[in-house]
Please model this.
Amino acid sequence: MDWEQLPDAQALQQARLRHRLRRADRYTSLCIAAADALLEGVELLPATALITVSSFGPSETAFQTIEDILDVPAEEVSPTRFSHSVENAACSYLGVAFGFHGPVFALAGFEQSTVENANQLAQTILEQGLAPSALVINVVCASIVTAHAHEFYPQRFPHGVSERVRAWLYLTDDK
Model:
């Protein structure tokens, strides 16, 4: 699945409400919405593997956290925002929202194309019998980093970076 048009704020809010995710940031919300769309009408076993993959992760949340750390006393830094500033938060939310408890991976790699690695990992998980299915979600959220990526790394991002969501579902032959 590769969304031509990303869900609007209302659609993301509906996804958060449907799964009772009160504090999910945009990165996590896009992961949840992608899983909702891809898994509509599909029943998967709880042992499904989850893989999120991004070059930048939840960078906007991470930058807000860093600003808080620099601007306010440590005891005033939001522990919720801090916990959402890492890529693992989205995997945790996905697992809770869909009842999955299989292997979980959050891949990040600014300088490498981690999407191919994530898809290879999903295939390996299935081939090795570690899970009956694997959900791979690639999210790139707009942020100050993505807006200027072409300036500080023109070889990798010659045309800039667009916000996007892609997802793949891998199933074993017997599924």
